[in-house]
Design a protein that fits this description.
This protein has 183 residues and is an all-alpha fold. Helices cover 87% and strands 0% of the residues. The protein is built from one helix and no strands. The longest helix is centred in the middle third of the chain and has 159 residues, at 2-160. It is rod-shaped and about 220 Å long.
Length: 183
């Protein structure tokens, strides 16, 4: 009976052993799965970090490009500003030159005008002189016959007077000097 009992007990022991083994195997499997999950997590973390790094690199590159673009734009803007400034300077210089030439032309015209005025003045003066001379000649021409006539008249008067008939002028009588009245 005891052997039977023992025989009966053995499979129970076996069963218990099997149960324990199963539990251990289950634990191992669980551990394995947990390890795998942890590994996956770490892999994911690493991947995330890598992507984050990549993104950082990308953004950094983009920023660098932006800065470079801005610098290039600034350069071009500066160049454009310089160009426009140069153009403006040239325009101003051209205007100044044009003004100078215009002033010169105006001065020339003014000089010509003044020369014309002077010529007119001198011509007028000459005309006046000629006119004066002409009037003087006319006056002398008028005076000459008058003088001749007066000379003729004087001759006639002298002829009329006879030297014998000339009356002697009476000597002036000296009047007594009267004192000037005191006022």
């Amino acid at each position: 009976m005891a052997t039977k009992k023992a025989a009966k007990k053995k499979p129970a022991a076996k069963k218990a052993v099997k149960k324990v083994a199963k539990k251990a195997a289950a634990k191992k499997a669980v551990k394995k799965v947990a390890k795998k999950a942890a590994a996956k997590k770490t892999v994911k973390k690493a991947a995330k970090k890598a992507t984050a790094r990549k993104a950082v690199k990308k953004t950094a590159k983009k920023a660098v490009r932006k800065v470079a673009k801005k610098a290039a734009a600034k350069k071009t803007a500066k160049k454009a500003v310089k160009k426009t400034a140069k153009k403006a300077v040239r325009k101003v210089a051209k205007k100044a030159a044009a003004k100078k030439t215009a002033k010169k032309a105006v001065r020339k015209v003014a000089k010509k005008a003044t020369a014309k005025k002077a010529a007119k003045k001198t011509a007028k003066k000459a005309v006046r002189k000629v006119a004066k001379k002409a009037t003087a000649k006319k006056a002398t021409a008028r005076k000459a016959p008058a003088k001749k006539a007066s000379a003729k008249k004087a001759v006639k008067k002298v002829a009329k007077r006879k030297p014998a008939v000339r009356k002697k002028k009476a000597a002036p009588v000296a009047l007594p000097a009267t004192p000037a009245p005191l006022i």
